[in-house]
């Protein structure tokens, strides 16, 4: 069997030889190539792709399949892998199989742990649980932002809500002009313990902190309107809600499209190829077997285009 010098695989972790932040090219945002400028420009989409990775709900709404990320693995390492498309001649394939990058070709899926980094980098290696970081941010802010943007009706309650989110980051014992130090603490609260190890880590960190900075700067703007202004009134509320709604529009978190509690004989329905209608994408709804296919087959309401002719599976080289 010919030696395979490089292998492109699909995996959930961006695992490459450790590199420093200085190795990231300073590519302009309008040119192809990795750069922090591009990561910041696409920050909200990167954040959401990480949050939805291998999760049915977010992947169905944003149509990123199961969010398997393409990486390139240099030769010489031993990989944990599940091989798709051909049998493993040594009988070690499937999830958790171990195979030599120089001698095997296939598609890897599932979570690849620190052992892969260790084998490739020649050291202990480190894997950042970026989905865990993103989950913490969504869990902290999703319900509160929606409540503030849609549910709060008085200055008193808006003041209480924003103080509840920001007081953790404000040191009232020191002078902090414009609350800039507090803003930075807020933006880095969930990433300050992260130690980026690879170029990909540095780029993801730039994207995640762009999102958290946007959240925190909006909250401090609301705080200025309803807390610092002792004469806050209905106009302050209108401006605050406009800022919060603009933020939620940028964030596009799929959690906000989840159904309220469905009945025991219903599921929260969202279009999943090849089934579904346009209305259920815009507003997922509770359905059971008696109404599950409503709107599927009407060309005016169906969400998906006609099912394309299926392509044959790839013919992997042996």
Keywords for this entry:
318 residues; mainly alpha; two-stranded antiparallel ribbon; 10 helices; 6 strands; globular
Descriptive report:
The chain has 318 residues and is mainly alpha-helical. It has three domains: 7-121, no CATH class; 130-256; 259-313, no CATH class. The protein is 40% helix and 8% strand. It is built from ten helices and six strands, in the order βαααβββααααααβαβ. It has helices at 36-41, 43-52, 56-62, 114-121, 130-151, 155-166, 180-187, 199-228, 234-251, 278-282; strands spanning 7-11, 69-73, 78-81, 97-100, 267-269, 285-287. Strands 1-2 form a two-stranded antiparallel sheet. Helix 7 (180-187) packs across helix 8. Residues 1-21 form the signal peptide. Keywords: Signal.
Write the layout of secondary structure elements.
Blueprint: E1 7-11, H1 36-41, H2 43-52, H3 56-62, E2 69-73, E3 78-81, E4 97-100, H4 114-121, H5 130-151, H6 155-166, H7 180-187, H8 199-228, H9 234-251, E5 267-269, H10 278-282, E6 285-287
Antiparallel strand pairs: 1-2, 3-4, 5-6
Keywords: Signal
InterPro entries: YOR389W-like
Signal peptide: 1-21
Uncertain parts: 1-22, 80-120, 310-318
Global structural class: mainly alpha
Mean pLDDT: 75
Spatial arrangement of strands, main beta sheet: 1-2
Total beta strand runs: 6
The residue fraction in helices comes out at 25-40%
What distance lies between the first and last C-alpha atoms, to the nearest angstrom?
7 Å
Summed up, the domain count is 3
Radius of gyration: 24 Å
Strand content: 5-15%
The major beta sheet can be summarized as: 2 strands, antiparallel
Helical segment tally? 10
Shape annotation: globular
Order of helices and strands: EHHHEEEHHHHHHEHE
């Amino acid at each position: 069997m010919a030696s395979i010098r490089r292998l492109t695989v699909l995996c959930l972790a961006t695992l490459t030889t450790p590199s420093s932040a200085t190795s990231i090219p300073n590519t302009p945002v309008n040119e192809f190539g990795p750069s922090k400028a591009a990561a910041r420009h696409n920050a909200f989409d990167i954040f959401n792709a990480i949050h939805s990775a291998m999760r049915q709900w977010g992947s169905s709404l944003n149509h990123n399949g199961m969010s398997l990320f393409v990486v390139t693995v240099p030769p010489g390492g031993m990989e944990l892998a599940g091989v798709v498309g051909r049998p493993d001649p040594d009988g070690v394939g499937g999830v958790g199989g171990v195979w030599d990058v120089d001698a095997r070709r296939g598609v890897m899926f599932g979570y690849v742990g620190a052992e892969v980094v260790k084998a490739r980098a020649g050291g202990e290696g480190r894997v950042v649980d970026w989905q865990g970081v993103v989950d913490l941010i969504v869990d902290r802010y999703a319900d509160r932002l929606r409540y503030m943007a849609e549910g709060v009706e008085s200055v008193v309650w808006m003041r209480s809500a924003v103080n509840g989110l920001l007081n953790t980051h404000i040191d009232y014992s020191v002078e902090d002009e414009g609350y800039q130090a507090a803003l930075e603490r807020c933006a880095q609260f969930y990433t300050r313990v992260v130690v980026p190890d690879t170029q990909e880590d540095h780029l993801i960190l730039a994207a995640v902190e762009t999102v958290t900075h946007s959240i925190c700067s909006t909250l401090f703007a609301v705080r200025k309107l309803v807390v610092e202004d002792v004469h806050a009134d209905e106009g302050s509320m209108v401006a605050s809600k406009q800022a919060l709604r603009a933020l939620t529009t940028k964030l596009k978190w799929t959690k906000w499209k989840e159904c309220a509690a469905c009945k025991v004989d219903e599921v929260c329905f969202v279009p999943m190829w090849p089934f579904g209608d346009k209305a259920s994408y815009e507003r997922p709804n509770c359905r059971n077997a008696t109404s599950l296919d409503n709107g599927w087959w009407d060309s005016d309401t169906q969400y998906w285009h006609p099912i394309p002719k299926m392509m044959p599976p790839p013919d992997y080289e042996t």
